[in-house]
Amino acid sequence: MGAAGGGVLPAGQPIRMGLIGLGSMGRHHARVIREVEGMDLVAVADPHGDKHGVAGPLEVLPDVAALIAAGIDAAMVAVPTYLHEPVALALAEAGVHAMVEKPIAATVEEGRRVAAAFADAGLVGCVGYVERCNPALLAMRERIEAGELGEVYQLTTSRQGPFPARIADVGVVKDLATHDVDLTAWIAQAGYSTVSAQVTHRSGREHEDMVVATGRLANGIIVNHVVNWLSPVKIRQVVATGEKGAFIADMLSGDLTFVANGDVANDWDRVAVFRGVSEGDSIRYALAKREPLRVEQENFRDRLWGEPSEAVTMDEGVHTLTVVEAILESAATGTTIAL
C-alpha cells in the first residue's frame, strides 16, 4: 500500500515532526515519535499546557499556527475530535503532512473536507487507528489472507470496560466502536453494505455509553459489535469464524488462537444429531509483540518516505466514520441503514 506522488519526503531524510495535543494520547505519541528512527520531534503545541510533562526541552506552543511556524515536515494531531477539522485543514493549507488520531473528524462532512484538502494538496494524510497494529490482529489478517480460515463467514468484536475519564466530546460509538468498524473492514478487506444498531444511555451523560451493532459487508461476511464503557470487566476480542475453524484475537494480551473444526466422531446421541462442526485442535501462536503505537508511527514514516506502508488512509477514515454515523442513525430511527 505504498504511497507515492507529490509531497512525499526523500527516503531516509529525517522527518521534522510536530505534535499538537499533549493529553492522554498525545503524551504517548511524544514518547514514541522520539523513539522512532527517522523521526525528530521538534515542536509541540497545546493551549492547555503540558500536564503530563512530556515536552522536555521543547517550548509548549499555543496553537497550530505556532506549530507550523516552527518549520515542521509533518504533524501528529492528538486534539479532541471536534478540533480535528480546523487543525488538519490548517496543516494542509500550510503544506504539512499529517496523521490525525481517530476518528478523522467529528462528522462525515468534516472528514470528507479533511481528506479532500490533503489529496488536493498532494500531501500524505493518515488516520491513527492503532488497533490495526496490534500483533494479534496483524497475524489474523495475514493468516486469513493466506487462506488458513478458508471462506470467512462472520466477524465479531467485543470491546467492553470501565469508563475512560479522558472522554468528553463523543459517545462510545465514535470513541470506541470506530476502532471495531475500521479493523473489521480491514481484516475482511471489504466495506460495510448494511448496518443496524441499538444504543442505550445508562450513566447520565449526554452521549450513548453502550451499543450493539450488526451488519453485512460488501463481500457477504456478517458482523457483530458489542461495545460499552460501563463494564467492570475489560474485554478486547475479535473472533473470525470461517469454513476451517475460528481465529480468536485477544487485543489486551496480543495473543492469537486458532481453533480448528474437528472431525472426531461423537457418539453422545443428543450431540451427534447436530449437523455442524465439532471442536478440534487449538493452537496459540507465538507472536513478536511490538508496541502498536510505535508500529503506527513507523507506518506513517514509511508512507512519508514513499515506502510500502500499512498506514490508514484518510479515505478509509471517512468510510469508517460513514459507518459509525449510520450506526447512530440506525439506533435513533430503529431502521437498518444501507450504505
Describe the structure.
The chain has 339 residues and is an alpha/beta fold. The chain has two domains: 132 residues, NAD(P)-binding Rossmann-like Domain (Rossmann fold), CATH 3.40.50.720; 171 residues, 2-Layer Sandwich (Dihydrodipicolinate Reductase, domain 2), CATH 3.30.360. It is 31% helix and 28% strand. The protein has nine helices and 16 strands. The strands form two sheets. Strands 14-13-12-11-7-10-9-8-16 form a nine-stranded mixed beta sheet. Strands 3-2-1-4-5-6-15 form a seven-stranded mixed beta sheet, sandwiched between helices. A hairpin with a 2-residue loop joins strand 11 and strand 12. Helix 4 packs antiparallel against helix 9 and helix 6 crosses helix 9. 45% of the residues are buried.
Features:
339 residues, alpha/beta, Dihydrodipicolinate Reductase, domain 2, 9-stranded mixed β-sheet, 7-stranded mixed β-sheet, disordered N terminus
Brief summary of the model shown:
Helices cover 31% and strands 28% of the residues.
- What Rg, in angstroms, do the CA atoms define? 21 Å
Q: Approximately how much helix is present in the residues?
A: 25-40%
Which descriptor suits the 3D outline?
Answer: globular
User: Please, how many domains?
Assistant: 2
Oligomer: single chain
The helix/strand series, from N terminus to C terminus, equals: EHEEHEHEHEHEHEEEEEEHEHEHE
Note the main sheet: 9 strands, mixed
- Please tell me the CATH architecture of the largest domain by its name: 2-Layer Sandwich
Protein name: Putative dehydrogenase
GO molecular function, one term: nucleotide binding
InterPro entries: Gfo/Idh/MocA-like_OxRdtase_N, Gfo/Idh/MocA_Oxidoreductases, GFO_IDH_MocA-like_dom, NAD(P)-bd_dom_sf
Keywords: NAD
